[in-house]
Amino acid sequence: MTYVTHTRQAIADYSVDKQAAAQAELDKYIESQAEAPTQDPLTSRDRRIIGEIIEVQPESVRTIWIEGGITVWVQLVGGGRLPFDRDWFATRVAQVKATLPETPRERNERLSDELEKACAVFGLYHGEINWLSFGTKLYQDGSFVGFIGCNQQGWYTRPRQYGLNRVAPSAEQVIASLGVRARVAA
What we know:
Oligomer: single chain
Number of strands: 8
Number of helices: 5
Order of helices and strands: HHEEEHHEEEEEH
Strand order of the largest sheet: 4-5-6-7-8
Structural class: alpha+beta
């Protein structure tokens, strides 16, 4: 006579395996995020302003955030946080911005933005900018139009390399003095 013997088999627990796999995937993701470079939301000017307000070196300011729409928190690099009333902080930022001198880099960025907008109005493009003296050549449809730059007197232009500068308070006005017409929207 044959006997059949039944044995208990372990029931495979797939949920434990899936959980372990999910945890491993999460750990790998967190590790990759820690290695990824993050973009700093504060500019060097922001750090200078905050440093001026709280009387610390600009490099010691890590970040800021607003909590509950009421409190501005300043996180410092060496550790520590400083709380400020949002309205008071906003008032101080406006005061410091008004008195803080512009750095050469900030000046060049501002002038470059103004030049780009003026060039768009007239359908012009410019060559490589000399950042030390902030000057460049202007072109329209591949043809040389003139030189443009900005110095202590303001924006200047001239149609040839040598000659008298025409000076105006804005890039758009000084380009117009070259006789270039603004593009008309169709």
